[in-house]
Amino acid sequence: MTHRLKHRIKKIILVKNLSDPDIKGRKLCGFLVDNEICIDSGMCRKEKIKTLIHELAHSIWDDAKEMDVWKIEGLLYQAFSKAQKDILWRHIKTARMGKIPRK
Prior knowledge:
Elements: E1 11-15, E2 30-33, E3 36-40, H1 45-60, H2 66-79, H3 82-93, E4 96-97
Parallel strand pairs: 1-3, 1-4
Antiparallel strand pairs: 2-3
């Protein structure tokens, strides 16, 4: 089975106190909307990297159940080398602060 990137990621946005736009008060670590990945800016480096992996997994397997995406995130995070995690971190560090894009 071949998986292709279903959504080309345009950018990563760091959002202060990221919350679900559909469920008031529900805090989120990350969110994928309009080919942009939003990540809560208040998390530590490791959690931001894991969240980026998680949201990228959603962009590849957009029909996967949330529990399966959590498993993929965990497996990839453990499998990635320090150098690979550093590459992801560099992408996060270049992200700008912003707000969730409107749907």
